[in-house]
Structure formats: C-alpha cells, structure tokens
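I have a small job for you when you get a moment. Can you supply me with one protein entry, sequence and fold together? It will help me judge whether the discrete encoding reads sensibly. Write everything out right here, beneath this request:
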Amino acid sequence: MKIFYDGSCRICRRIAEWIRRKDTRGGINLHDISDGAFIPEIWSLDETVWDEPHGLVDSRIVRSSELVREVLGALGYKRLTSLSRLPVIHALFNWSIKFLSKNRYWLGRFI
C-alpha cells in the first residue's frame, strides 16, 4: 500500500508519523507530495491529490474516507473499520474526512 500525504500540512505529517509507528510489518509506504521531486503522473494521479487523501491499494487508486478505512484495516483496526461502514457512522466518517481535508491547514495551526 502506498499513501500520498502533504508534508507541508502539520496534521498530515502527524498522521504519517503515527502510521509509521503503527506499521510494524512495513506494508505501508508513505510519499510526501510536497516534495519538489514528487510527480503525480508517475502514479497515475491528478491534481486532486492535493485536495484529499490518496493512496494505491492493490494497484488501484483509493481516495478520502475509503483510504482511511484501508489504512486502519492494514494497521489492525478491523473493528473500527467495520464500525465506520455502519449507515449513520459511515456518513459522519465520510463528512469528517472531507472536512478535515478541506480545512487541514487552518486546523493544523492548533496542533
């Protein structure tokens, strides 16, 4: 699994650090999209990579809340992943990921 994160965002960096600590099997590769050498087209990504979480899971592009579920599942949080798929929680989870993505720089000031 490959995850593309915005290294210029405090929240994104913290989440990437947390993933690195929790990924004891080494199955998740993190790529900083704010690195000047990052070229989205190499990974078949477009400019939306800057707007929401993106990743490659089994050679398919996964975005936003579905990527978060994939990551949580890969880190062993299977129950949390299952809970996030329940109807009301699913909607709240999706909304919160979109809100966080859209406001990550502003919210990052408080971390």
Remarks:
- Residues 87-102 form the longest helix (16 residues).
- The mean pLDDT is 94.
- Residues 12 and 18 are 10 Å apart (CA to CA).
